[in-house]
Design the sequence.
């Protein structure tokens, strides 16, 4: 029977070996090394059916209706690297670096949507090169025109979730 204490949703309870006998007071039934959808190695931990079925806080632990909980964790080294990179994202240096990247991605997006640089209209290296130069010139002319006419930058898209409070 469940005691009402579910295993944590992260790697905090998994030791350096990645194979503890218990997680959150529950004994894991199965441990499998797998690859996630991006090809990274992960450990999938499955808990016994009888523990999860009778657990009074099952809804806080899993969205599954019939099957027991699966816990997927990364290797210890990969988890620590991921946590370190997430902490770096809060620094001013990272924010400045990402700001430059966002500007470059905005330029690429404008070039894709405007002159359509993903596809070439011509065959042959010289003609393709000429098309790339003309496409870049067109994007620059559009930006100069927007600057001279004080055209504001486009707002970013509002997601459906963000639009909900405004509609209520």
Sequence:
């Amino acid at each position: 029977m469940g005691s009402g204490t579910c295993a944590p949703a992260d790697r905090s309870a998994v030791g350096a070996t990645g194979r503890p006998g218990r997680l959150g007071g529950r004994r894991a039934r199965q441990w499998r090394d797998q690859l996630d959808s991006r090809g990274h190695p992960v450990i999938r931990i499955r808990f016994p059916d009888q523990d999860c079925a009778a657990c009074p806080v099952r809804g806080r632990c899993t969205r599954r209706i019939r099957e027991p909980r699966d816990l997927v964790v990364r290797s210890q080294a990969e988890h620590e690297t991921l946590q370190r990179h997430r902490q770096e994202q809060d620094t001013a240096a990272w924010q400045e670096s990402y700001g430059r990247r966002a500007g470059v991605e905005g330029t690429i997006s404008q070039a894709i949507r405007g002159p359509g640089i993903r596809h070439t209209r011509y065959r042959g290296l010289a003609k393709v090169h000429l098309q790339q130069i003309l496409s870049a010139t067109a994007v620059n002319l559009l930006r100069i025109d927007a600057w001279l006419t004080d055209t504001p930058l486009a707002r970013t898209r509002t997601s459906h979730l963000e639009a909900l409070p405004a509609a209520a």
